[in-house]
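User: For my dataset I need records formatted as: sequence, then structure tokens, nothing else. Please produce one.
Assistant:
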Amino acid sequence: MAAPLSAFRNSTLKSNKQESTPFEQEQDANSALSELDRGLRSMNVGVQCEAVVKFPRLFEKYPFPILINSAFLRLSDVFRAGNNFIRWCILRVTQESEKHLDKILNVDEFMRRIFTVYHSNDPIARAITLRTLGNISLIIAERKNIHHSITVSLDSNDAVEVKAAIFAAQKFSEQSRVFAANICDKISDTIHSVATPVKLKLSLIPVLQYMHHDVTMATKARNVCSALLSSYPAEMFMVQTLRTMSHLAVLSLIEIPTQVDLLLHHLHVDSRRNVKVVCLQELKRLADKTSHLWTYLQIQAVCEFIQNTSYIGLKTGAVNVLVSLSNAVTFKIVFAKHDFHRSLLDVCNLCYVHDNPVLMSKLTEFYTNIVIAYSKTKGTEYWCGQNLVDNVVTAVQTQIMVLITDPQNTKPLKVCLRCAIELSKHQPKVADTFVTCIASLLSETEEKSIALLVLLLNTFTLFASCAALCESLAAIGSLNQSLLPKSVVPQLLGVLQNSLNAGLEPHQMQVYLCTVLFQVAGGSPIPAEVEGLILACAERADPWLAYKTARQALRYGQCGIAEKIFQALAKKVSSEHFYFWLIGLQEITLGEKCLHSNTTTVIAKLQQALAYYHKGLTSLKAAVVPSFPLQFQSEYIQLRASLLEVHTQLLRTCNTFKTCPPPAIAAAQAVAKGQELTKCEHIVTQLGKTARDYEKISERLAALYQQSFDADPASLQNIQQLQTSCELMKLAISSIVQTGHDGQALLADKMVLGVGEVTGDKFKQLLNTVHTELATLLRTEGTEVISHKHVEFLSEAASRLALAPNCFPRYFFQSLQQTALKLAISPQQTTTEPVLVQNDTYLTLKVEGIVQHGSKPGLFRKIHSINVIVTSNIVTRAQTNNDQKVTESSVNNVEQSVEPHNDYFSLSFILRFPLVGIHSVSIEAAITDTEGATWRTGPRVSLQVKSYDDALQRQQQKHAQRPSYSQLLTS
């Protein structure tokens, strides 16, 4: 039965980079604005409100200054003439569109229309106006009339207007140094006034946290708060004042150690529970923002509080502070200057004596962080004769075994499992212990969950615990596949078989189990009974889970399983786009499957694989739609096929060394030229061409790497490994050919593999092995002429690299980060005519752009600046009567860099076109990340410019109007 289109579409769209991008199809901004403008002019209030609430979405799609300025001016007209409900809707628009406010060009006119409503007799209207002015304070922060209006409204008799004035005072204090300095004394006097109500005093205290513009003002505000602590010791005032002082310290970056000491003092001295809770919350805030300013004694004070307090909630809050500190550089500084203090270890050991799951998980996380930090800083795992790594492994295992017994402890269990993953990452030798423990627990928990299901009990949370265990195993395997011992395979197979025999509904747990089995195999063939079990699970699962299983199989080199699942899924979709996508994946897996068959020669395997690859590439191109271009997927498959073609070419070239021996005259020519290499001139020429082909593919892979800004690190490493294989083969050919030329072997250490430490990745191991064998060959083999050993090495290396299992990167299927640039060029070219410019003048080209993000912006890398490159070339040169040669260059090549502000950037270029004719102008954007790397992400926009000579045109017009000789005779 075919799956519903919507279900499979929603799932499959998440699996593809382009398909996961939330950017909609391009529409006309002017038409959208005109439609909303018609709604604003409607006499129906509901239609007006509907139009108003659509403006934030319009600003997100088209955040260009001209459109935003026009839209806000129209909204200000409606705000001035509308009722309070319409004004409230516009207030929400200004609140949601804060990052676009600096694009308003007519700020004075916009503010004047809004501020007119403040003179109304309606206090509600004045309150809405004050809040709106507060939202747009970014662009009107220094307006004196608004400062005066806020100050006046603070003394109003209407409570709603006073609250709005306090809100506006906070916003303007944050933006304006002048307003903050003027309002500080008034707020202090109002708070200390006996006539001021208590609620109003509590509302005014948070305004002081924005007095952070200079040291003098921040010190003055802090002194006011310190006076409040002694003058108003009530719990409400204490809580509000401590929060304000912490915010002020973070914003002003002064008195932070003093504020930490103050919070620790009240934490130990004040007996009120709410005050202690607030102190812990603010300590965590300071730990997150300014952990590098904490001292060792302050950390020790938190540890003492944890040991002395008897309240679980307070212990948990204090441990959260230590966890935040241990995640930063603070503990490295502590370990560098001090010995491992006993109080820290005492806090860690509390994880054995408490039964609260949240507290135990947080203590375990803290224990893990400090052991990792201590091992990195001190370079040892021992302290006072104790092995800290063994101790923390025991603690993590204990907590996992305790938490797995209660199905309600899923979140604390995930925290402990993350600790196990981090320890496996930094201490690989302990991964075997965790994997064995988790596999045994998984088997017991899964049997228990099936028994409960038979009793018709609610087992959803228990299955969630099983899924968390399986996910942790897959996470450890993704770090290094060799960390998963094969001894756990029978247990995992038993769990998978039991879930299948019990008739359970398909679950994500089965996908994780299949992933772990793929990781344990490491690209090697899976036994038939295991493959049958995996295919049975995929057959029973819904299309989305089956697709994820096939995707994981292709990522870990199990193309046989992936091919069968893709073949079945292709018949269950009702969209042509999805059908060709799945058929393309099926053809690609068939190609990979041909490489691992044992029936034919290596060249025959490569020819069959290339045939399937080209079919798959055709299907991928058929799956392209305008919104999902599949650029990375198509380019990756094309490069993979090209690399296999070059491997095939090298194998055939090596075969010609045996089938086409040098001619009889070759020896005489070699003696005459004094070079033994001329005996093998034919194969040397072919090897040189193959080396150039490897170099071209390496350059294309480097270009693909630069285009993959959103790719995860593992996917980038996959591309880098393919490029390394090309560079390695080019080095091998060049070294052997150079050996014949001058008798000196090129050292293999010139090759920079860039694959780092040899881990469980078999392709990395293969690259290092080939590199080592090349160095050995060049040292031991003769250096006079190319021998059969050189050719055999090239043939064997090409065969091993070509037949190695190719693990497709995650970015081929899924992108966790989405980033796109959209450009707007002015002047714009019409559909038929190019842009006109005189050859003796300059063309001002304005480039505006926006940065669009997905749900997780900056997950792997962040944008620092945008580089825009403008180049021009003459396409058609006009015929002129001027015989003088033009010495000026007809090519423009200009590059500028700009940092985007609120995801918007704007650049201007001055271009000149001295040659009369048609010029092609290309505008290309690139991204520079925070590490300084440049990514050629595009987009690339082009336009035509027609350069003309006004004087030449007038001469041609006069010449056309002058009568010809035949016309004179006729007249």
